[in-house]
Amino acid sequence: MNDNMISVFAIVKEYFESNGFDASFDELYEEAEQLSQSVQRDAITDRTEKVAFELASYDLYWYLKTLVKEDAFNFDVSDASDNLKLFIKVLDKPGVWLENDALYEEYQKIYGETVVRSIRQDKK
């Protein structure tokens, strides 16, 4: 279990116990996992709307500098999976379509800039 899952698990366990339910670990784990996944989906949906709105306020996507895209996406360096999901969903909003290799290259440019910025901040 990751940190998010552990905290959700603790909340679900406390809820079950405070309401007099005696649930097994498996039942609690399953409930916590479903809640965690739901919250994660909602967070990606909210971020997708925010990033798509911010990018729409600029010129066409193709004319934006990588730094502007990096600012808008503000990827989490430790969560490549959700970053990629966010990236794909944001590009789908205005209908930006890229083939697999080009999509990955575009993502890598933005993610790479995020990593560089993170390293600079850590050094400071």
Provide an overview of this structure:
With 124 residues, this protein is an all-alpha fold. Helices cover 75% and strands 0% of the residues. The protein is elongated. The mean pLDDT is 85.
Fraction of residues in helices? over 70%
Shape: elongated
Rounded to the nearest angstrom, the distance between the terminal CA atoms is 32 Å
What's the pLDDT, averaged over the residues? Answer: 85
By oligomeric state, this entry counts as single chain
| Main beta sheet strand tally, sense and closure | none
Total of DSSP H or I helical runs spanning 4+ residues: 5
* Total strands: 0
Query: Uncertain runs with pLDDT below 50, 5 residues or more?
Result: none
Structural class: mainly alpha
Strand content: under 5%
Name the helix and strand elements from N-terminus to C-terminus, one letter apiece.
Answer: HHHHH
Radius of gyration: 19 Å
Notable features of this structure?
about 120 residues; mainly alpha; 5 helices; about 0% strand; elongated
Describe the structure concisely for a colleague.
With 124 residues, the chain is mainly alpha-helical.
Show the helix and strand layout.
Blueprint: H1 3-18, H2 25-56, H3 66-73, H4 80-92, H5 100-123
Helix pairs in contact: 1-2, 2-4, 3-5
